[in-house]
Amino acid sequence: MEDLAQVYKKTSSLHHAYVIEGNQKKDFAGLLSFLEKSVGFKTHGNLDFYHESFDSFGIDEARRIKEMQQKKPFTEGGKKVFILSFNFITREAQNSLLKVFEEPTSGTHFFLLVPSAEIFLPTVRSRVVILSQKYSVEGRHGSDGGSGSREIAYGNFPADFCKNFLKSSPKVRLEMFAEIIEEKDKARVISFLNNLESLLFQKWNKNLSVEKTTDKAEIFKQIITCRNYLHDRAPSVKMILEHITLVTPVVIS
To answer: Which of 33, 163, 188, 246 could form an SS bridge with 156, CB 3.0 to 4.6 Å?
Structure first.
């Protein structure tokens, strides 16, 4: 949280909304310290401070937060802070909060603690400042708003996970996903699909023959479709990974 503290020290202002990806429990403790010591915002016994944790953040939660943030801070000219921790957020909830993240009630600031920023739609990521797992900050900070640019951090998988996936048989691939399927970890699946898409593009872009272009384009289409399904209310992680396992060709080189 050091970068955030340094930026605040220089500007004395906060962005409307931050996404902090990484260890949620550790990040929450660091964020409380930042608010208390750097911002001078009391988090204990403060009616303008709200924190709640969710496994999956849905449309009902989004509507409740929208209603809560519409009220002005109890302290005149003060701040209202929302810290929301969750592992996944539905597409409906994200669309519902777009306007809130862009133009919240004056003095309101959101801090979203998540395992990976990849769970958000591009439209949401363009409206927030993202702090990566290493807490490096990209984007403009200021009370007048501004878009945060994204620093991609696929920390949920070993660096060679996708390479091993491409080399493996369907049976081995499913074994690699055993833990993710058991935990129904949608955030990690999204990170995996992003990695897979990037790796395939790098490999195929070097040697893309005309006769194979259609087949390869279909694989990318399948990845995009599966990633979109993951933003629905109750996607089947198991079915999505089984599908990707079968449609993705074995790539040795």
So the answer is: 188
Q: What is the domain range of residue 229? A: 161-247
| pLDDT tens sequence across 48-77 | 999 999 988 999 999 999 999 998 888 877
Residue 228 inside a domain? The answer is yes
H or E element at residue 40: none
Residues 95, 29 share a domain: yes
**Whether residue 173 sits in one domain with residue 72:** no
On the CB side of 178, CA atoms within 13 Å amount to 4
Q: How many percent of the chain have pLDDT more than 70? A: 85
Closest CA to 238 of 187, 191, 194, 174: 174
- Residue 22, sorted as left (phi over 0), alpha (psi -120 to 50) or beta, turns out to be left
211 DSSP 8-state letter: G
- pLDDT category at 149 given cuts 50, 70, 90 is very low
Which residues lie closer than 8 Å to 10 by C-beta, 6 or more apart? none
The closest alpha carbon to 107, from 13, 21, 203, 245, belongs to: 13
**Nearest-angstrom CA–CA distance, 42 and 240:** 44
Residues ≥6 apart with Cβ < 8 Å to 33 = 1
What does residue 83 show for φ and ψ, rounded to 5 degrees? -115, 115
